[in-house]
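Q: Please design a sequence for this.
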Protein backbone atom coordinates (compact mmCIF):
# COMPACT_ATOMS: atom_id res chain seq x y z
CA UNK A 1 0.00 0.00 0.00
CA UNK A 2 1.40 3.42 -0.92
CA UNK A 3 1.93 6.15 1.66
CA UNK A 4 -0.76 8.23 -0.05
CA UNK A 5 -3.27 5.38 0.01
CA UNK A 6 -2.61 4.60 3.65
CA UNK A 7 -3.02 8.24 4.60
CA UNK A 8 -6.26 8.53 2.65
CA UNK A 9 -7.51 5.53 4.59
CA UNK A 10 -7.16 7.52 7.80
CA UNK A 11 -9.41 10.22 6.39
CA UNK A 12 -12.30 7.87 5.81
CA UNK A 13 -12.55 5.69 8.86
CA UNK A 14 -9.99 2.93 9.24
CA UNK A 15 -9.08 4.05 12.76
CA UNK A 16 -9.12 1.55 15.63
CA UNK A 17 -10.75 1.88 19.04
CA UNK A 18 -8.47 3.48 21.59
CA UNK A 19 -8.57 4.97 25.05
CA UNK A 20 -6.53 7.91 23.72
CA UNK A 21 -7.05 11.57 23.02
CA UNK A 22 -8.74 13.03 26.05
CA UNK A 23 -10.37 16.16 24.72
CA UNK A 24 -9.80 18.94 27.25
CA UNK A 25 -13.07 20.69 27.88
CA UNK A 26 -14.84 19.19 24.85
CA UNK A 27 -16.96 16.37 26.14
CA UNK A 28 -18.70 17.69 29.21
CA UNK A 29 -20.91 20.59 30.11
CA UNK A 30 -19.24 20.58 33.50
CA UNK A 31 -15.52 20.32 32.72
CA UNK A 32 -13.30 18.89 35.39
CA UNK A 33 -10.36 20.88 36.64
CA UNK A 34 -7.91 18.43 35.14
CA UNK A 35 -9.46 18.85 31.70
CA UNK A 36 -9.20 22.65 31.85
CA UNK A 37 -5.58 22.97 32.95
CA UNK A 38 -3.50 25.45 30.96
CA UNK A 39 -0.94 22.67 30.58
CA UNK A 40 -3.29 19.66 30.36
CA UNK A 41 -1.98 16.25 31.26
CA UNK A 42 -1.96 13.59 28.53
CA UNK A 43 -4.80 11.13 28.39
CA UNK A 44 -4.62 7.51 29.56
CA UNK A 45 -3.19 6.52 26.18
CA UNK A 46 0.02 8.53 26.58
CA UNK A 47 2.31 5.57 26.02
CA UNK A 48 4.57 6.18 23.02
CA UNK A 49 3.20 4.79 19.77
CA UNK A 50 3.73 5.39 16.09
CA UNK A 51 5.72 8.63 15.55
CA UNK A 52 3.53 11.44 14.23
CA UNK A 53 4.66 14.74 12.72
CA UNK A 54 1.99 17.40 13.17
CA UNK A 55 2.08 20.65 11.23
CA UNK A 56 0.51 23.58 13.09
CA UNK A 57 -0.46 26.82 11.35
CA UNK A 58 -2.31 29.71 12.96
CA UNK A 59 -2.64 33.48 12.69
CA UNK A 60 -0.22 35.94 14.23
CA UNK A 61 -0.36 35.80 18.04
CA UNK A 62 -1.26 39.48 18.40
CA UNK A 63 -3.95 38.85 21.01
CA UNK A 64 -3.80 37.14 24.39
CA UNK A 65 -6.14 34.36 23.32
CA UNK A 66 -4.18 33.59 20.15
CA UNK A 67 -0.91 33.52 22.09
CA UNK A 68 -2.54 31.02 24.46
CA UNK A 69 -3.59 28.90 21.47
CA UNK A 70 0.06 28.57 20.41
CA UNK A 71 1.33 27.83 23.92
CA UNK A 72 -1.36 25.19 24.49
CA UNK A 73 -0.45 23.45 21.24
CA UNK A 74 3.28 23.51 22.02
CA UNK A 75 2.97 22.30 25.61
CA UNK A 76 0.57 19.51 24.64
CA UNK A 77 2.86 18.25 21.89
CA UNK A 78 5.79 18.23 24.31
CA UNK A 79 3.90 15.76 26.53
CA UNK A 80 4.14 13.08 23.86
CA UNK A 81 7.40 11.37 23.00
CA UNK A 82 5.94 10.25 19.70
CA UNK A 83 4.85 13.71 18.47
CA UNK A 84 7.00 16.13 16.48
CA UNK A 85 5.41 19.57 16.09
CA UNK A 86 6.24 21.70 13.06
CA UNK A 87 4.80 25.10 13.96
CA UNK A 88 4.71 28.09 11.61
CA UNK A 89 5.50 31.65 12.59
CA UNK A 90 1.87 32.68 12.22
CA UNK A 91 0.46 35.37 9.98
CA UNK A 92 -2.70 37.42 9.51
CA UNK A 93 -1.86 37.73 5.82
CA UNK A 94 -3.91 35.16 3.94
CA UNK A 95 -1.36 34.58 1.19
CA UNK A 96 1.45 34.18 3.72
CA UNK A 97 -0.48 31.64 5.77
CA UNK A 98 -1.40 29.67 2.65
CA UNK A 99 2.29 29.59 1.74
CA UNK A 100 3.21 28.33 5.21
CA UNK A 101 0.64 25.54 4.99
CA UNK A 102 1.77 24.56 1.50
CA UNK A 103 5.31 24.26 2.86
CA UNK A 104 4.02 21.86 5.53
CA UNK A 105 2.17 19.87 2.84
CA UNK A 106 5.36 19.64 0.78
CA UNK A 107 7.21 18.42 3.88
CA UNK A 108 4.65 15.58 3.98
CA UNK A 109 3.69 16.05 7.62
CA UNK A 110 1.36 13.31 8.87
CA UNK A 111 -1.45 15.59 10.05
CA UNK A 112 -2.20 19.32 9.87
CA UNK A 113 -3.79 21.48 12.56
CA UNK A 114 -4.94 24.77 11.03
CA UNK A 115 -6.46 27.80 12.71
CA UNK A 116 -7.05 29.98 9.65
CA UNK A 117 -6.80 33.75 9.81
CA UNK A 118 -9.78 33.61 7.43
CA UNK A 119 -11.63 30.30 7.11
CA UNK A 120 -13.22 31.15 3.75
CA UNK A 121 -9.97 32.33 2.19
CA UNK A 122 -8.00 29.26 3.34
CA UNK A 123 -10.54 26.63 2.34
CA UNK A 124 -8.65 25.77 -0.85
CA UNK A 125 -5.43 24.95 0.97
CA UNK A 126 -7.40 22.70 3.35
CA UNK A 127 -8.81 20.90 0.32
CA UNK A 128 -5.28 20.60 -1.09
CA UNK A 129 -3.99 18.97 2.08
CA UNK A 130 -6.90 16.50 2.21
CA UNK A 131 -6.37 15.64 -1.46
CA UNK A 132 -2.72 14.93 -0.65
CA UNK A 133 -3.83 12.42 1.97
CA UNK A 134 -2.96 14.63 4.96
CA UNK A 135 -5.86 14.79 7.43
CA UNK A 136 -6.68 18.30 8.61
CA UNK A 137 -7.88 19.27 12.06
CA UNK A 138 -9.61 22.61 11.48
CA UNK A 139 -9.30 24.66 14.66
CA UNK A 140 -12.01 27.18 15.56
CA UNK A 141 -12.41 29.40 12.46
CA UNK A 142 -14.13 27.02 10.12
CA UNK A 143 -13.47 26.33 6.45
CA UNK A 144 -16.29 26.76 3.96
CA UNK A 145 -16.72 23.05 3.35
CA UNK A 146 -16.33 19.89 5.46
CA UNK A 147 -14.33 18.45 2.54
CA UNK A 148 -11.45 20.72 3.63
CA UNK A 149 -11.02 19.03 7.01
CA UNK A 150 -11.30 15.64 8.70
CA UNK A 151 -12.33 17.11 12.05
CA UNK A 152 -13.37 20.54 13.26
CA UNK A 153 -12.92 21.58 16.89
CA UNK A 154 -13.75 25.00 18.24
CA UNK A 155 -15.65 27.27 20.54
CA UNK A 156 -19.37 27.93 20.74
CA UNK A 157 -19.85 31.61 19.98
CA UNK A 158 -23.63 31.42 20.06
CA UNK A 159 -23.47 29.47 23.33
CA UNK A 160 -21.07 32.04 24.74
CA UNK A 161 -23.65 34.79 24.24
CA UNK A 162 -26.45 32.53 25.40
CA UNK A 163 -24.75 31.67 28.68
CA UNK A 164 -23.75 35.29 29.31
CA UNK A 165 -27.36 36.33 28.77
CA UNK A 166 -28.75 33.67 31.07
CA UNK A 167 -26.25 34.54 33.80
CA UNK A 168 -27.19 38.21 33.65
CA UNK A 169 -30.86 37.32 33.34
CA UNK A 170 -30.81 35.26 36.52
CA UNK A 171 -29.04 38.05 38.40
CA UNK A 172 -31.63 40.62 37.29
CA UNK A 173 -34.79 38.51 37.06
CA UNK A 174 -36.36 40.13 40.13
CA UNK A 175 -35.58 43.71 39.09
CA UNK A 176 -38.27 45.63 37.25
CA UNK A 177 -37.27 47.47 34.08
CA UNK A 178 -33.70 46.17 34.15
CA UNK A 179 -31.38 47.66 31.55
CA UNK A 180 -28.33 45.99 30.00
CA UNK A 181 -25.68 47.11 27.52
CA UNK A 182 -23.27 45.17 25.30
CA UNK A 183 -19.65 45.79 24.34
CA UNK A 184 -19.18 43.56 21.31
CA UNK A 185 -16.11 42.64 19.28
CA UNK A 186 -15.48 43.24 15.58
CA UNK A 187 -18.79 43.47 13.78
CA UNK A 188 -17.37 42.22 10.48
CA UNK A 189 -16.67 38.83 12.08
CA UNK A 190 -19.35 36.16 12.03
CA UNK A 191 -18.38 35.11 15.55
CA UNK A 192 -19.37 38.55 16.87
CA UNK A 193 -22.79 38.26 15.25
CA UNK A 194 -23.24 34.80 16.79
CA UNK A 195 -22.30 36.02 20.27
CA UNK A 196 -24.77 38.88 20.02
CA UNK A 197 -27.51 36.60 18.71
CA UNK A 198 -27.03 34.16 21.59
CA UNK A 199 -27.13 37.02 24.09
CA UNK A 200 -30.29 38.47 22.57
CA UNK A 201 -32.00 35.07 22.48
CA UNK A 202 -31.24 34.46 26.15
CA UNK A 203 -32.67 37.85 27.14
CA UNK A 204 -35.98 36.93 25.48
CA UNK A 205 -36.57 34.68 28.50
CA UNK A 206 -36.55 37.73 30.79
CA UNK A 207 -39.30 40.18 29.81
CA UNK A 208 -38.21 42.58 32.56
CA UNK A 209 -34.84 43.16 30.87
CA UNK A 210 -34.13 45.48 27.95
CA UNK A 211 -30.88 45.87 26.03
CA UNK A 212 -30.57 49.63 25.70
CA UNK A 213 -27.18 50.08 24.02
CA UNK A 214 -24.49 48.25 22.07
CA UNK A 215 -21.04 49.26 20.86
CA UNK A 216 -18.58 47.24 18.79
CA UNK A 217 -14.91 47.41 19.76
CA UNK A 218 -11.90 45.70 18.15
CA UNK A 219 -10.66 43.14 20.67
CA UNK A 220 -7.93 45.53 21.90
CA UNK A 221 -7.38 47.26 25.22
CA UNK A 222 -7.44 50.66 23.52
CA UNK A 223 -10.69 50.05 21.66
CA UNK A 224 -12.31 48.60 24.75
CA UNK A 225 -11.46 51.70 26.75
CA UNK A 226 -12.63 54.13 24.06
CA UNK A 227 -15.91 52.37 23.28
CA UNK A 228 -16.72 51.77 26.94
CA UNK A 229 -16.18 55.45 27.67
CA UNK A 230 -18.72 56.25 24.96
CA UNK A 231 -21.23 53.81 26.43
CA UNK A 232 -20.81 55.23 29.93
CA UNK A 233 -21.30 58.77 28.69
CA UNK A 234 -24.44 57.83 26.77
CA UNK A 235 -25.96 55.61 29.46
CA UNK A 236 -26.26 57.26 32.86
CA UNK A 237 -27.96 54.21 34.35
CA UNK A 238 -27.90 50.50 33.53
CA UNK A 239 -27.76 47.28 35.50
CA UNK A 240 -25.42 44.95 33.59
CA UNK A 241 -22.78 44.92 30.89
CA UNK A 242 -21.70 42.02 28.72
CA UNK A 243 -18.26 42.44 27.19
CA UNK A 244 -17.39 39.92 24.46
CA UNK A 245 -13.65 39.77 25.11
CA UNK A 246 -11.48 39.93 28.22
CA UNK A 247 -8.58 41.62 26.40
CA UNK A 248 -10.72 44.59 25.41
CA UNK A 249 -12.26 44.23 28.86
CA UNK A 250 -9.00 45.48 30.39
CA UNK A 251 -9.62 48.77 28.63
CA UNK A 252 -13.32 48.72 29.49
CA UNK A 253 -12.51 48.37 33.18
CA UNK A 254 -10.11 51.33 32.95
CA UNK A 255 -12.90 53.47 31.50
CA UNK A 256 -15.29 52.30 34.21
CA UNK A 257 -12.78 53.13 36.94
CA UNK A 258 -12.07 56.55 35.42
CA UNK A 259 -15.79 57.27 35.33
CA UNK A 260 -16.15 56.21 38.96
CA UNK A 261 -18.98 53.83 38.13
CA UNK A 262 -19.79 50.76 40.24
CA UNK A 263 -23.58 50.63 39.93
CA UNK A 264 -23.81 47.59 37.61
CA UNK A 265 -22.40 44.09 37.15
CA UNK A 266 -20.12 43.09 34.30
CA UNK A 267 -19.67 39.74 32.55
CA UNK A 268 -16.63 39.19 30.36
CA UNK A 269 -15.71 36.70 27.69
CA UNK A 270 -12.90 34.24 26.82
CA UNK A 271 -11.12 33.56 30.14
CA UNK A 272 -8.11 35.84 30.64
CA UNK A 273 -6.07 35.48 33.82
CA UNK A 274 -6.65 39.14 34.67
CA UNK A 275 -10.40 38.54 34.53
CA UNK A 276 -10.16 35.49 36.79
CA UNK A 277 -8.08 37.45 39.30
CA UNK A 278 -10.57 40.33 39.36
CA UNK A 279 -13.47 37.91 39.80
CA UNK A 280 -11.69 36.22 42.69
CA UNK A 281 -10.90 39.53 44.42
CA UNK A 282 -14.54 40.57 43.95
CA UNK A 283 -13.80 44.23 44.55
CA UNK A 284 -15.14 45.66 41.29
CA UNK A 285 -17.94 45.36 38.75
CA UNK A 286 -16.55 42.27 36.98
CA UNK A 287 -18.43 39.30 38.46
CA UNK A 288 -18.07 36.58 35.81
CA UNK A 289 -16.62 35.66 32.43
CA UNK A 290 -17.81 33.15 29.84
CA UNK A 291 -15.12 30.81 28.54
CA UNK A 292 -13.87 30.50 25.00
CA UNK A 293 -11.14 28.08 26.06
CA UNK A 294 -7.76 28.14 24.29
CA UNK A 295 -7.27 24.59 25.57
CA UNK A 296 -8.96 23.68 22.27
CA UNK A 297 -5.46 23.82 20.75
CA UNK A 298 -4.26 21.11 23.14
CA UNK A 299 -7.28 19.01 22.23
CA UNK A 300 -6.52 19.57 18.53
CA UNK A 301 -3.06 18.09 19.10
CA UNK A 302 -4.70 15.07 20.75
CA UNK A 303 -7.00 14.65 17.77
CA UNK A 304 -4.13 15.01 15.30
CA UNK A 305 -2.08 12.43 17.17
CA UNK A 306 -5.02 10.03 17.20
CA UNK A 307 -5.49 10.48 13.45
CA UNK A 308 -1.80 9.95 12.78
CA UNK A 309 -1.76 6.76 14.84
CA UNK A 310 -5.06 5.39 13.55
CA UNK A 311 -6.87 5.65 16.87
CA UNK A 312 -10.26 6.73 18.10
CA UNK A 313 -11.32 8.82 21.09
CA UNK A 314 -11.46 7.35 24.57
CA UNK A 315 -14.94 7.15 26.04
CA UNK A 316 -16.68 6.87 22.66
CA UNK A 317 -17.84 3.65 21.03
CA UNK A 318 -17.00 4.69 17.48
CA UNK A 319 -13.84 3.51 15.73
CA UNK A 320 -13.06 7.00 14.41
CA UNK A 321 -12.67 10.44 15.93
CA UNK A 322 -15.78 12.64 15.49
CA UNK A 323 -16.23 14.96 12.52
CA UNK A 324 -16.75 17.95 14.82
CA UNK A 325 -16.42 18.93 18.47
CA UNK A 326 -17.92 22.08 19.94
CA UNK A 327 -16.54 23.27 23.26
CA UNK A 328 -18.82 24.32 26.08
CA UNK A 329 -18.81 27.98 27.14
CA UNK A 330 -18.78 27.61 30.90
CA UNK A 331 -19.53 30.61 33.10
CA UNK A 332 -16.78 31.34 35.63
CA UNK A 333 -17.66 33.40 38.70
CA UNK A 334 -16.42 33.53 42.29
CA UNK A 335 -18.00 30.14 43.05
CA UNK A 336 -15.73 28.23 40.65
CA UNK A 337 -12.93 30.60 39.64
CA UNK A 338 -10.27 28.67 41.56
CA UNK A 339 -10.97 25.63 39.38
CA UNK A 340 -10.22 27.58 36.20
CA UNK A 341 -7.43 29.87 37.40
CA UNK A 342 -4.68 27.75 35.85
CA UNK A 343 -6.31 28.03 32.42
CA UNK A 344 -6.25 31.84 32.32
CA UNK A 345 -4.22 33.38 29.55
CA UNK A 346 -2.19 36.61 29.76
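A: Design:
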Amino acid sequence: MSQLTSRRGLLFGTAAVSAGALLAGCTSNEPKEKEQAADPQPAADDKPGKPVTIGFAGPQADHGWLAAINSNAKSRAEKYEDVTLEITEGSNDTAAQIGQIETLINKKVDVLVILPADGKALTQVGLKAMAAGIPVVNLDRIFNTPQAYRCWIGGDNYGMGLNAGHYIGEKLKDKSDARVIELAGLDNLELTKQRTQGFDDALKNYPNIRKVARQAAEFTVESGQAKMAQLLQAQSKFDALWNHDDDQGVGALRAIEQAGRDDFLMVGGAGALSAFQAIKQDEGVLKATVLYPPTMAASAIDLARALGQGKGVGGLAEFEIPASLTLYSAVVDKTNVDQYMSTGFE
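Q: Thanks. Anything notable?
A: The chain has a mean pLDDT of 88. The longest strand covers residues 209-216.
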